[in-house]
Every structure is written in C-alpha cells, then in structure tokens.
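Teaching assistant's notes for section 4

Start the section by putting this record on the projector. Ask students to predict, before seeing the second block, whether Nerve growth factor receptor (TNFR superfamily member 16) will look compact or extended. Collect guesses on the board.
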Amino acid sequence: MENIACLLGLFCLILVRVCTALDCKEQAYDFNGKRCCNKCPPGQGLSQDCSHGNDTQCGSCVQGQTFSPEFWHTEKCQNCSECKKDSHVKTPCTIVEDTICECNVDFYFHTVAKECSLCNFCPIGYGAIIPCNRLQNSICLKCPNGTYSDVKSATLPCKRCTKCSSGQAEFKPCSDTENTICYGHPKENYTLQPTTAKDKKDFDVIPVYCAVLGAVVLGLLVYVIFKQYTRLKNRKIHKGHEPHEEVEYSKASGCDSGVYVENEFCKQYNQLSRVRDLPVKKKKELEKNLSMHTSDGNTWKQLAKELGYQEKKIGEFESSSSEVVSHVHNLLNHWSKYKHSTVEVLIKALTIINRLDIVLILQRDITERKSHLHNVI
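Reveal the predicted structure now:
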C-alpha cells in the first residue's frame, strides 16, 4: 500500500509540473518555469543570459570575423574558420554562415586527415579511370591495347590510338605511351569522268606549256651564266689594281677559297651532327617553323619538355622577349651547348610531338646532300 501511495504522489507531482509548464514559442525557451526568454537569432550571439528581471541579451556578430548560424541562447558568436594549406575560399564567411573552403586544383579533401592532399598523377602509359576531383582521389589503370597516354595526369583517361587513313603508311605503331605515327597524305576519292573532246584539247596544250616554261628557265640560266662570266672577267682585269676585289672574289669562289665564308651548301650535316653546327639558314628555318602556333598549342614548349627542360627554365626562355621566334632561338641556343644535342635527338623529339613537317625538312637536306656527293663522285 505504501508503494502504491508513493507512485500516486509522484504521478500527481509530474502532472502538476506539466500542467503548470510555460508554453513558449519556437524562438524562445522556458526559464525555470517562470518566464519565456527569447533565443538569439542567426547573426547574433549571446551577450548576457536571461534572468528573472531581464530577457536574453544578444550582440550582433562581426561580418567576416564571427558568425552565428541558428537560434540559440547558450552560444556566443563563433570565430570564422580560415582555409588550411592547399585550399582556398569558395564562399567567404558571413554573420550567419562560416567560411566554406575548397581544395586547390590537383588536390582533394582527405576525409580521414581532414585536409587537402595532392592527387595521384597517373604516369605515362596509364589513364585515370576515375579522375581526381575536390572530393576524391584519382584511380589509375594501365592503358589497354588500342589506347595510349603520353602525359602525366590526375584527370585524363587513356586516348584511342589513331588509325592511318587510306593513302597513309604507318611510320611507328601505337603503344601504351605514344600514339600511332603516320606519314603520307590521305588518298582522296576521285570520280572518273568520261573523256570529252574538250579534255583531249586541254591535254594537248600541256606540252606547249612545258616547252614555254623550259625556254624561260633556260633563258634565265643563260643570263645568270653571262652575268657571272662578265663579273669574273672584269675582276681579272682589275685584279692588280684593287686588292679588296681579290678578297671578294675569294669569298665567291666557295669551299676552295682561302678566306672563310659560311657557304650553306658546303656546310654539310648528318644525323650525328651537332645542332649548333647546322647552317645559319637552316637554324632560322627551324626557329620559324617551331614558332608557328599549331592546334596542339605552343610547339616549342612541347619540344622543350621533350628535350628535358622544366617549366621554370621554359619560363626563363619565354620572359626574355615577347617574340616567339626569340623563345625558340633561346631554347635551341641553350640546348645546342650539350654534347648530346645532335640532329638525331632533335628529330626524335620532333617526331614525339608530331611535328613531322620539320622532321622532313631536316631529312630532306641530308638526302639531297648525299645525292649531290654521289653525282660528284
């Protein structure tokens, strides 16, 4: 009986407490069952607690320094967070919201370490099956057959190998680290039309055009020979009176002259020759072609990377002048000082960056010189 009486008394006490509790609104709270005190709204923090005689005292947060995100009566304005290393501010701190930070490019947020970590860069021959983003790291996979990757990247997947089109030959097959290299021009589709009388007439005119062109070339050749003969004859006449002309004649005599002159034809080279020993005219031709902007970007920068230069050194070449030709000149001039700076190494690097047009320029001159020497012998 005593236990039952105790339980009834406790129940009555709870019932009285519930019935007498204050019904405060959502933005307020019950202060010891005696009054409803207001909560501090977002953007304001607690300055002084509620008491029997005074309501809750709130103070405004400072923009960019402190914030308060919700209604409460126990917390002061909190200090704004600062972005950690390898991250930047995505959304600045306000009086109602803390700073939102975001990892820099090539970094992701490590959920365990609670900081931004550097993405895994897939090596050459591997592609990113899951690219790195600001929330997760990259996952790399070796490029399967028919694909390749020739750059280190945390985001790029393997690319499909190029197939040589009709009329082209495969210079080098595709591998997991470089694309197929083709040479030759694609074969165009021609539609055979029946031969008409007009076509036959046009065809008969071609030999006439060739004959006229041959006559013009022959006339120019005779004129040049005549002018050269006249010049040499005059120099022989004045040879004893004008010693300076003697020097000029020696220069014009080419490779057999005792006076040094850089004759473009006499200065031969092959694949084992140093780049610094190339004819000046050939160097200028290389610089001009490398300075041209292609669809792949700045060719000279790609070449510099293939020759082993880092971004910092490339930047030095670029900062020396606003002219792209000067950038290329500085690159070739600096690289040609090394012992391994041969024409063969340069051709290999140009092939890798797919500048076969420049490769053909170098190889053509080597072939022409071999042909000339054979004819002389």
